[in-house]
Amino acid sequence: MPLPGPIDPPARLLMGPGPITADPRVLRAMSAQLVGQYDPYMTQVMAEVQELYRGVFETANPQTLLIDSTARGAIEAALVSIVSPGDRVLVPIMGRFGHLLAEIAGRSGAEVHTLDVPWGRVAEIDAIAAAMERVRPRVLAMVHGDTSTTMMQPFEGLRELCDRFDCLLYADVTATLGGNPFPVDGWGVDAATAGLQKCLGGPSGSAPATFSPRAVEAIEARRSIEAGIRVEGDPVAAAPIRSNYFDLAMIFDYWGPRRLNHHTEATTMLYGAHECARLVLDQGLAAYQERHALHGAAMLAGVEGLGLEVYGDRAHKMANIVGVVIPEGVDGEAVRGALLEEWGIEIGTSFGPLAGRVWRIGTMGYNARRDAVLTTLAALEAVLRAQGHAVPTVGGVEAAGECYVNAGDGSPA
Ligand SMILES: Cc1ncc(COP(=O)(O)O)c(C=O)c1O
């Protein structure tokens, strides 16, 4: 085989459910040179990252850090470290990622109970309360925004419910953090994990996470330090956390004052995660979320302006992704293919029962921008027409434009 050429990807506008086009500021940070594991600069950046993400998560949790993995790894770290084999875990499922939580909790040894919600809807608090009454779980594990359906679960009231049953509250905020309100302390969440590749504007591969003192207590109770690095007095548990890589007690030591060696830091991802949080806090968390609300609303208006139907319960939609029902007679994959090949634009389809039935269009992170929204709508219109589907001329672009004018935003911010 001849030597392959250097990496030189085609120009793309990633308007799917994530990953999205990375912010150039994040890519620049990621091109910085490495320093050693215990270089003072490394530990300074780690400390800065912890403080930055306390801002993004709106928490005072000392244990706020990065898991060196994609978002799925952070879910696994949280659940495998909090859940002891045999613990009851309640998982309301409203889409693909609820199933993922149940799967990971099960593999962590939990006795998993689910509350199945029809896709396109969210779980009602009364239904969650009834399930809690029945199951008496030690952990309530929920997806905040299930990317597969674009639905966002309300978290108000869950802390009170968990207090009533002495239960820990875990949230997967991979697809929502930064672009939608998620005040960890305000909502009394015990553990929350995310990823960089959605609203935070970075690539996947590092997962911000935060743990309340209550969650830390549960994790520390299972602390066991591996041979080779343990010193006298370090605990060795009879039944340690089942994963070594995702053992949060050891990861806390690695990020903490002991700097106990665990893995080799993914320095380039650390730099990227640092810049992602700076992007959010530089603009201001509230303004960053408002930007997602504005461009998400414009995309939704544009989709409707093209005469297309929006999927799911509108009242509980995530700001940053819209599900679009693929019209009768339209080949959804052919439309996605033409968008990519002719316009360099990627949009997503969905999973399971929604595969081939729904497109998902994201407006998040670097692509929560007016020009990205308008270009995508113009392209979708052209492609739909080329496929023989009648759509109102410039209907999408006009409806989105109107949305910007009504919001007093004529600028391409
Ligand atoms: C809600 C949600 N949870 C978890 C994940 C898994 O993330 P990753 O692919 O980074 O492991 C995703 C990915 O799209 C997601 O949308």
TrEMBL record:
Q: Calcium among the record's keywords?
A: no
Needed cofactors, names only, are:
pyridoxal 5'-phosphate
- Is-annotated flag, keyword Isomerase? no
Q: Which UniProt keywords apply?
A: Pyridoxal phosphate
Q: Which residues form the Aminotransferase class V domain?
A: 39-349
Family in the record = Belongs to the class-V pyridoxal-phosphate-dependent aminotransferase family.
Name the UniProt record assigns to this protein: (S)-ureidoglycine--glyoxylate transaminase
